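Hi V.,

Quick status before I head out on leave. The structure for the redesign project is tokenized and pasted below; the design run finished overnight.
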């Protein structure tokens, strides 16, 4: 059973930074592509960014390009989301999804709240 755990959420001021972490256990971490999603109150979960299993390729939604950076350390079975230049519009619950690239099985974490004050 694969377990995905997000951490690092909290309160930031406008223009500030936060770093989220996504740790996965129970599988071969380097076989998983990882994506971050976020969910605004009353809205559907939406895609933020993703990283390939090797870390060699990254993808970003236009809303975060240039402000957010996704990276991974396969030795630590962890993916990081560095969020800079935060705005109140980034306030959401952030979720990590680990997708096994050979079986397409996906696993979600429980989410971590990010709140940006104006």
């Amino acid at each position: 059973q694969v377990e995905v755990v997000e951490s690092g959420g909290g309160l930031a001021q406008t223009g500030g930074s936060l770093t989220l972490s996504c740790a996965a256990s129970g599988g071969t971490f380097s076989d998983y592509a990882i994506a971050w999603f976020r969910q605004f109150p009353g809205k559907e979960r939406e895609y933020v960014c993703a990283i390939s299993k090797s870390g060699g390729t990254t993808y970003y939604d236009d809303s975060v390009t240039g402000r957010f950076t996704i990276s991974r350390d396969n030795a630590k079975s962890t993916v990081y989301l560095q969020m800079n230049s935060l705005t109140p519009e980034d306030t959401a619950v952030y979720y990590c999804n680990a997708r096994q690239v050979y079986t397409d099985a996906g696993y979600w974490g429980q989410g971590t709240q990010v709140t940006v004050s104006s």
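Above is the designed sequence. The first strand starts at residue 3 and ends at 7.

G. will cover questions while I'm gone.

Best,
W.
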